[in-house]
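My current task is to audit a protein record that another person submitted. Alongside the sequence sits a line of tokens, each denoting a local backbone shape. Please read both lines and tell me whether the tokens look consistent with the sequence. Do not assume that whoever made the record got everything right. Thanks in advance; the entry in question is below.
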Amino acid sequence: MEQSEKNTLHEQMLKSLIESFEFNKMNYVPLILPSIFLFISMMLISYGLGQTLKFLGSKLEEDMSLNVLLGSQMLQWGIISLLGFTIATMIASYYVLENTRKHIYESSVTTYYFKGGSTAEGLIQYLRSIYARASLPAPVTGLLLSFLTSGLSYLVVLYIVEKTIREHAILEENTLLESRVTGKYGLISFIIDLVLLFLTMGIYLAYMGYRLGKVYNKHVELIHGNHPLPPSKKPDVNVSKEFPGDLFREKSTTILISLLLVGIALNIMLCYFGFYSILTYVPSYGLIIGAITVSRRNTSSMRDFLLTLCLIYTLIFGSMLTGLLAHDTFSYIARSFQKQVEEVGVGRDPWFTARYIFTNNLLISLPAIIPYIGGLLIGYGVTNAGLLIGAIVGAGLRNLLEGLLILVYPHSLLELSAYSILITSSKYLFSNTRKFLIHTITGILVLFLAALVEALTIVLLR
């Protein structure tokens, strides 16, 4: 009898606690605001850098003074907008983390109550939700990280929060509705989001924030719409058809390749009109190259290698066209490269030249063994190489045929092949240690051979 009274008292206290909860929807404004400042900042900084580079490559003093004035003004306003983006992300990070942590606690307690309190199923769901809450950073931590990283950490916060909300929603849908509505959100989907973010110079961040709020609000409406009563309405569909859901996992390679081609075309157009767009576009290239191999789970190493090599050549051709059409912007890069070569004495001593080239290429390519993000530096290096060749051709220092022949020199084929091998190795980092080591060592050896061949070629052509 005493135990029965305790259970009744426990149930009454739990019921009173449940009735005190309020499940409110998220406000979209704090989630969308950062994208406005980011887009303005990226446009101003890109244009300002473009004008500054034109000044560095200009030979006419009147053009130089005009470009300097315009470029410096755009850069100043871009930095001010970047400060606004930082403040907006600090507010948004605190807002989404505070609301999500609070919601997961209250929602897990409510589900625990709906499933009969101390029953095994209710307890398991409660513990799972509490674990999900513990994986989220504290709101103050998110705010401080946004301040220290000038808002970059906000992208990670969005990924963690949306992933957690979706997993929490799926858990409660399966428990209370015995039907799943919400789609999952994985790392490949996040990479696609980042690529779209860079390609749109930040404006896509508005959709990322809106989507997070939409998933959260749909969950509140579906599960807690009848609060404090259990949900009574079962959904009409089984799985949501939102972009980052499970339905796009099998098509991720096609989506990424399409984004690469679109990005190259947009980059060419923007650079032609004076926007230094590689500031945001180069990271998207690297992310695509790094993510595609990992997304292809059941393909052979040779197919991955050939696909990656084709993508690298596509990128370098696109960058060459960018440098060719906007050579007045990128001519400074060509002159800087020539000056660097003269300062280090490349070409005088074959062994020194080989070591210099190998060390430089290894620093660019070795991070490629990291899954998903490893291709960032390779994307940067390949883009710069293409811009350099295009700028040289555009300035009339070489003809187009000579520029294209550089890409099929023996050392170029070896170097780009080494990049492809190292990127392919990232696929096996956590799944097959033997294959990972074989690919990594092979890639480094091919890279050294490429440097040696290039050094001998330089000596022979002097």
Notes: The radius of gyration is 27 Å. The chain has a mean pLDDT of 82. The longest helix spans residues 61-114. Residues 268-461 form one domain.
